[in-house]
Design goal:
Blueprint (H helix, E strand, L loop, with lengths): L1 H28 L22 H8 L5 E4 L9 E5 L19 E6 L5 H15 L3 E2 L3 E4 L5 E5 L1 E4 H5 L3 H4 L2 H22 L7 E11 L17 H4 L5 E6 L7 E3 L2 E5 L2 E5 L6 E5 L6 E3 L2 E4 L1 E9 L13
Parallel strand pairs: 1-12, 4-6
Antiparallel strand pairs: 2-3, 3-13, 5-8, 6-7, 8-16, 9-13, 9-16, 10-15, 11-12, 11-14
The protein binds 2-acetamido-2-deoxy-beta-D-glucopyranose (2 copies).
One 2-acetamido-2-deoxy-beta-D-glucopyranose binds next to strand 4.
Length: 313
């Protein structure tokens, strides 16, 4: 009986993923679509949620290839090209920024382990003020959004003057320095003019653990396309602040390609970046144990969607 339920939940989940991949392909021929915007870590809740233990056991068989392991140190960006999806035809072109070539890259040579540790402490301090009831919390230093219970509060309004005891000018300088380096690295890797790329929102710290989701905001594991989830994104980067297999288990990043699932194992200080179109459908595995910290830093080609670097109010 239980096995049967698991089986059907599993089937509906795989069917939904398959539809998603097909939709990604269909999109290459069809016109642009716009998805929901905001702090959704996910696109849409899938119909049924699966038996957690069963899913973990089955997970590894779904991995076709590990692109970069936690224990490796990749000093120069390791680049994996993928053909750009057709959807770019539907977007306005910005010379020097709009992807001409698409792909993914991973590097450990841009942010040091020490910087990652400082940013992780910053995330721990900020997130300790709130936190989701479910297993996934975010903190956005630009807008001030912080997960709290089943919703978000504005950290700057909610804590006003107290916030100066939690964050310092130095924290924001570090964020700026790291963001700038990531931007230059993306520009060099994709052959762009970094002055034609702009930080865009949302840019946020995330903290994930194995506690069950309480709202759809906690469901970070669904496959999604960033350009569709967050309309302004052209390049997405993830800076990991903790180590896969050491600080947490599960929680690997997975590119879901039609011919296989390719993972990046998080490593503190590792930056993984990619063009945000449907050529890079991805998801994050559920965290099984421990706590996973990361920062999402994203760039747009459209100056109208540019945001300023976060500052201490
Ligand atoms: C996960 O984090 C939440 C805070 O968001 C905490 O209440 C919970 O105890 C944590 N769960 C585990 C398994 O560590
Ligand atoms: C990729 O992973 C999904 C979900 O984890 C799975 O349904 C699918 O079969 C996998 N694809 C391949 C080619 O292994």
């Amino acid at each position: 009986m239980a096995a049967q339920r698991r089986g059907s939940a599993r089937n509906s989940e795989s069917a939904a993923i398959e539809r998603k991949i097909k939709r990604g392909h269909a999109q290459r021929q069809a016109s642009a679509w716009s998805g929901p915007r905001g702090y959704l870590l996910v696109l849409m809740p899938l119909a049924a949620c699966c038996s957690v233990g069963w899913l973990y056991l089955s997970m590894d068989s779904d991995i076709t290839e590990t692109l970069v392991r936690q224990g490796e140190i990749v000093l120069q960006p390791r680049i994996f090209r993928v053909p750009c999806s057709e959807d770019y035809k539907n977007y306005k072109r910005y010379p020097g920024c709009t992807p001409q070539t698409c792909g993914r890259a991973v590097t450990d040579g841009v942010v040091t382990r020490e910087e990652a540790q400082m940013l992780r402490r910053l995330a721990e301090r900020g997130l300790s003020l709130g936190g989701s009831d479910g297993g996934a919390s975010i903190m956005d230093l630009h807008s001030g959004a912080l997960s709290m219970g089943k919703q978000f509060v504005n950290i700057y309004r909610y804590f006003s003057e107290q916030i100066k005891e939690v964050f310092s000018e130095e924290d924001f300088r570090l964020y700026w320095a790291v963001r700038s380096r990531i931007q230059r690295t993306i520009a060099e890797t994709f052959g762009l003019d970094s002055t034609h790329m702009y930080l865009t929102k949302p840019t946020f710290f995330s903290r994930m653990n194995s506690t069950a989701a309480k709202t759809t905001h906690d469901e970070y594991w669904h496959p999604h396309i960033d350009k569709e989830t967050y309309g302004s994104f052209d390049y997405t980067s993830l800076l990991y602040l903790s180590d896969y297999g050491v600080d947490f288990g599960g929680g690997r990043f997975i590119f879901m390609d039609a011919d296989g699932n390719r993972t990046v194992e998080p490593r503190a200080g590792r930056v993984s970046f990619f063009s945000s179109g449907s050529e890079n459908l991805h998801r994050v595995e559920k965290v099984e144990w421990g706590t996973r910290y990361a920062i999402t830093v994203s760039f747009t080609c459209d100056p109208a969607h540019a945001i300023d670097d976060p500052t201490l109010p």
